[in-house]
Structures are given as C-alpha cells and as structure tokens.
Amino acid sequence: MTVAPRKDASAMESEVREKIHLEILKRTGAYHANDHVLLPSGQHTTEYIEKTLVTTEPSFTEGLGAVIAKHFAPWPVDVVLSTGPAALILSHCVARAHPSRPVVVYGMKGMASGKRRVTLPVEFQRLIREGTKVLVVEDLVSTGATLELLIDLVEQMGAHVVGVGCLWRRTSVELNGKPVFSLVSRDFPTYSPEDCPLCRRGVPLNEEFVRRRNQRRPPSVQEKRGS
Ligand SMILES: [Zn+2]
What we know:
This protein has 227 residues and is α/β, with parallel strands linked by helices. It has helices at residues 9-27, 58-72, 88-97, 145-156, 197-200, 208-214, and strands at 31-32, 37-38, 44-45, 48-49, 79-82, 103-106, 108-112, 115-119, 133-141, 160-169, 180-185, 190-191.
C-alpha cells in the first residue's frame, strides 16, 4: 500500500485560508473563475478579478483587513501606507485592526516622461520621517513595480518598511527583500487566441469585461450653471 505524501500542517492551513479568502472575493462579485475571459490586452484567461468590486462589502473588507493586521501585529507600525487611493479602504481596515493604532496615508502613482513614478501628497510628508515604521498595503500585486518604487521612496525619507500586506499576489517577485503577506497568492495563465486551449475546446468567449470598459459610458450629470 502506498501512502500519499502528507503536506505539513502549515501548508495545508494556508491552502484552506486561501480558499476561504477566494470564496469571500467571489461573493463580492470581484472574482470570476472557470471562465474563458477576453482581457483588454487581447489575451484569453480562465480567471478574472474586477478590482473595483473587491472592497464593496464593508464586513468582508473589515475581515480581510483584520487578517492582514493580525499577521503584522507583532511588529509596531506607525503608518499604514496605501499604494494609492484605490487601496485606501483596505488600508483603513488594516490600520483599524492593528494594535499599534497607526495612521493611514496614501501614495500617488503616475507617469513622468514615460516612466512610472510615485509621490506622497505634501500633507503626508511630515508623517513619514527618520525612524517611522511603515506597513505598505496594496489590493492586487501583479508586477510589484509600483510597490518597489514606493518602498524606495519611504526608505529615502529615512523611514523603515515593516512589510507589505496585500489581498492578492499574482507573482512571487521579491519586493526589495521585504516580507510580503498576501491573502491569496495565485497566478493564472493567459493565452494568445491562437494558443488558447479553451478556444480549441470551443468554450464561448466572455467579452463582457472588455466591452464594459470600452463601450458602456457610465451615467453622469453635469452642472448646468456656473456657481
Ligand atoms: Zn480563448
């Protein structure tokens, strides 16, 4: 009789945890799995995350934020730094649940002469100085390029990055050697239409997300008179 190799308890535990977190993201409508999705790049994939829906359920966001806070609870944190306004709701929930009662600030991402660039709004600059302990929070990490810049910026200001907490990490890139904690750590393959196994099996292509981006104009109102 052969016995399947047993996974150690911590690997199994993190697998279970990840499943729970995926289920939560599914319930917010942000995570789509077992699909055949057209991406804005023209590539096809089986899974998709609608970033803007990730933090629409307050109790879920609070729960997920608390898990990240719990992970970093042994380290004192003065400031939770959101990578941008988009990750601010999650950052708030992390800061709220962290025993150090850190303040929350956010960075700004942009492009300058074709290159990625991050800055801190001037009002926040006095909150991050020599010796400040900073926990960086991001919703979805794909390449980690913005995070690396933000870590550099914080360190240039003389502060110390305790770690990076995120909901989802698509890559296993090292972020300047900082400890990274993600609720879900999962990548999914993307295919060009010619090589797509789902196309080959005749699975209908879901173009909803690209169509939504390109065609549907959100309802808007405009001020009628100058005030
Ligand atoms: Zn396909």
